[in-house]
């Protein structure tokens, strides 16, 4: 489909259903978001149905092909001017220092080469869009002008080659491939790049930028929004409130899922790919001549006792890598997702064919592993001092499909489980099918493992974090729909899933068999990007028992000090994760909480008191202390302030955004395990076996020596969820591989 045709293709029935649902007053309860109740239709088009029509003045505004070309040429000159600045920064060594919290932050968002290449093209498109807005629209609104520029694509400009990939036409062979691609390409036959790695996050609402394109927006008063660190200091409570029903596994699975679906890239220098530092080496603001335009550091408030005690006046933040807009149009900036947008185990297998190949042994379908005391762990990094906060190349540092594998011990334990599960499944398939070669074994094992992850997410985890009405709706609308765009929304990745850091505890329990006592505890801040502890004998099992014993915390403003003061700690000080999430939301142009609340069916709040339908008076009063207008409240802050819904981790707005994502992730994935219309569907017998799988079984099968587990690993031990032996297949069912014995089926790959 041509670019112009694609932009004009509107989901008319979906828009009608959305409009009717809003005007009938049934929107908040009956649908997930203002997308069709069926979950179909593109997420966005160049004519956005959630904003009023443009003023008539734009009908008279003439933009010629010459104007578009000139804007791109101007953008090239702007980008070229960075060359001298970046050379000066390199010469002055204004770059990342190993062994600092900045290194930990960078490791989480380290950009792949493909991300950098696409980001360079997107940066030129952004600069060209700024030029068009400034010079074509005069006194007209920047935001409206940016929307107007969405009508024009880059097809016939010097950036036209950028658009070719977005119009990917999948061949019959690509579309009919039995196994999903590593990068998500051609999952959808008509829209080959939907869900592909290194494409833009989707938007549930149009971006909100001060200049209409990329400058973070301001408060209603036109003043800067509150300092992110001051917001954190004002709102965060010291005392955490445990959830008496859910285990810490709920948080950890949420993070594991987040890393499967999203990986935002940190920008590097355009002309040299060197790292960018936005604060001085002694922890304060840089001289203006050393500030890269991608910098958006957080100034530490004078009242900040913690950071001033450590002589820190500046928290580093480098803006995210931009992405070319999905329709290749001019307009506001999008951000790039390095992961595939599918729930496909990319945090284990990687999001490119090259990454997947680097993790394979190419023998009997197995993944590479490292060994310690005869136990298997993810393979070791080839560059430990860059990938982890360690001082020597002999120190332990792992590699996986996602570089965040080393982030903290609970996450490393989860990666370890799934590396082992893949190889366990591959062993069973190889034993039962002597005629299968390495490729068939690997792809079949990968397909089973992905199906297990999908089943655990939708059958166990989802009903712990979402209210029952959302779970029912998602289950009712579960059939594959090729019109559903699975792309991960920016608001889901940047705000909703980031809020799960509130569930962390600063103390990680190491629990002995029987669960009667702890062996010891780990201080979370001592183990960021330092995974060596997990290889000590018995520790992996103790972590897994702790993960399924220790309470999850509530989703609220009660954060562990290890998260809001000591993230990526170097032993001296760390970063404030909440402050970084606030500034990242602004960097990404996320509209305020009030707009998302309205999107999810609640009335627009004209006063802080209007938040009382979803927030406590205590939280409303706290917001008033730091924000001057309800429209200024950041999305992640508003979501944390909401009272959790019954039987749900999230409040109403985050439930709504998360439910939308989980619906589209399932409905827009042609290879989702339960879809009978994929090229090689599971048989009914195979599906029956996959649906037996629980997180408890994955732990039992892949821990070193865990002998007992409760059937519902996401719930606390109770009379209805007692410890049982791992060999109790009646309560913790095992997957039977007999349905995969098949010597008759022909494979093509």
From TrEMBL:
Pfam families hit by this protein: An_peroxidase
Main location: secreted
Leader peptide range in chain numbering: 1-28
Domain of life per record: Eukaryota
Subcellular location(s) of the protein: Secreted
Segments passing through the bilayer: none
Highest classification ranks of the organism: Eukaryota, Metazoa, Ecdysozoa, Arthropoda, Hexapoda
Protein name per Swiss-Prot or TrEMBL: Peroxidase
Alphabetized UniProt keyword annotations: Heme, Iron, Metal-binding, Oxidoreductase, Peroxidase, Secreted, Signal
InterPro entries: Haem_peroxidase_animal, Haem_peroxidase_sf, Haem_peroxidase_sf_animal
Organism: Callosobruchus maculatus
GO biological process: cellular process involved in reproduction in multicellular organism; response to oxidative stress
């Amino acid at each position: 489909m041509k670019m112009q045709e694609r932009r004009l293709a509107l989901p008319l029935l979906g828009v009608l259903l959305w409009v009717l649902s809003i005007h009938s007053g049934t929107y908040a309860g009956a649908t997930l978001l203002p997308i069709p109740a069926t979950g179909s239709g593109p997420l966005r088009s160049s004519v956005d149905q959630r904003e009023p029509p443009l003023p008539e003045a734009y009908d008279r505004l003439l933009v010629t092909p010459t104007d578009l070309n000139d804007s791109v040429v101007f953008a090239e000159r702007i980008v070229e001017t960075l060359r001298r600045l970046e050379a000066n920064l390199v010469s002055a060594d204004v770059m990342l220092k190993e062994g600092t919290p900045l290194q930990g932050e960078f490791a989480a968002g380290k950009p792949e080469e493909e991300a950098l290449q696409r980001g360079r093209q997107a940066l030129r498109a952004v600069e060209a869009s700024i030029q068009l807005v400034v010079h074509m629209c005069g006194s007209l609104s920047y935001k409206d002008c940016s929307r107007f520029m969405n009508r024009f694509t880059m097809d016939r400009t010097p950036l036209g080659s950028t658009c070719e990939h977005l119009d990917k036409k999948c061949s019959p062979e690509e579309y009919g491939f039995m196994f999903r691609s590593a990068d998500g390409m051609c999952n959808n036959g008509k829209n080959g790049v939907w869900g592909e790695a290194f494409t833009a996050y989707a938007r549930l609402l149009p971006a909100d930028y001060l200049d209409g394109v990329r400058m973070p927006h301001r408060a209603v008063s036109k003043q800067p929004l509150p300092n992110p660190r001051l917001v954190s200091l004002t709102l965060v409570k010291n005392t955490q409130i445990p959830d008496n029903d859910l285990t810490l596994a709920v948080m950890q699975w949420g993070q594991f899922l987040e890393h499967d679906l999203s990986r935002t890239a940190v920008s590097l220098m355009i002309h040299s790919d060197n790292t960018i530092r936005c604060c001085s080496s002694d922890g304060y603001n840089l001289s203006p001549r050393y500030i890269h335009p991608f910098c958006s550091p957080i100034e530490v408030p004078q009242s900040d006792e913690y950071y001033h005690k450590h002589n820190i006046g500046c928290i580093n933040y480098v803006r995210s890598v931009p992405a070319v807009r999905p329709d290749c149009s001019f307009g506001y900036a999008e951000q790039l997702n390095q992961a595939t947008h599918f729930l496909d185990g990319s945090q284990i297998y990687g999001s490119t064919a090259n990454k997947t190949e680097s993790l394979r042994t190419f023998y009997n379908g197995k993944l590479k592993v490292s060994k310690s005391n005869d136990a298997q762990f993810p393979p070791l990094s080839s560059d430990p001092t860059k990938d982890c906060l360690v001082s020597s190349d002999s120190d332990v540092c792992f590699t996986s499909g996602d570089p965040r594998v080393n982030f903290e011990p609970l996450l490393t334990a989860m990666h370890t489980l799934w590396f082992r599960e893949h190889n366990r499944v591959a062993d069973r398939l190889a034993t039962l099918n002597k005629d299968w070669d390495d490729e068939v074994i690997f792809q079949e094992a990968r397909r089973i493992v992905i199906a297990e992850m999908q089943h655990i997410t939708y059958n166990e985890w989802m009903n712990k974090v979402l209210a029952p009405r959302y779970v029912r709706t998602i289950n009712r609308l579960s059939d594959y729909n090729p019109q559903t765009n699975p792309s991960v929304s920016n608001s889901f990745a940047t705000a909703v899933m980031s809020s799960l850091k509130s569930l962390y505890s600063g103390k990680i329990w190491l629990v002995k068999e029987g669960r009667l006592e702890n062996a010891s505890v780990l201080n979370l801040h001592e183990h960021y990007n330092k995974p060596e502890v997990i290889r000590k004998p018995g520790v992996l099992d103790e972590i897994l028992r702790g993960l399924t014993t220790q309470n999850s915390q509530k989703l609220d403003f009660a954060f562990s000090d290890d998260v809001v003061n000591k993230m990526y700690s170097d032993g001296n000080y760390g970063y404030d994760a909440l402050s970084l999430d606030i500034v990242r939301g602004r960097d990404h142009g996320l509209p305020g909480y009030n707009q998302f609340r309205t999107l999810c069916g609640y009335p627009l709040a004209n006063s802080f008191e209007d938040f009382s339908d979803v927030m406590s008076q205590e939280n409303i009063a706290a917001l008033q202390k730091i924000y001057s207008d309800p429209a200024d409240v950041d999305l992640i802050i508003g979501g944390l302030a909401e009272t959790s819904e019954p039987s749900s981790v999230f409040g109403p707005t985050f439930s709504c955004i998360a439910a939308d994502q989980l619906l589209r992730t399932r409905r827009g994935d042609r290879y989702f395990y339960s879809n009978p219309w994929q090229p090689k569907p599971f048989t009914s017998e195979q599906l029956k076996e996959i649906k037996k799988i629980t997180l408890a079984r994955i732990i039992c099968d892949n821990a070193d020596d865990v002998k007992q587990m409760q059937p519902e690993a996401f719930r606390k031990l109770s009379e209805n969820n007692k410890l049982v032996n791992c060999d109790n297949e009646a309560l913790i069912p095992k997957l039977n591989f007999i349905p995969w014995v098949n010597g008759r089926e022909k494979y093509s790959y």
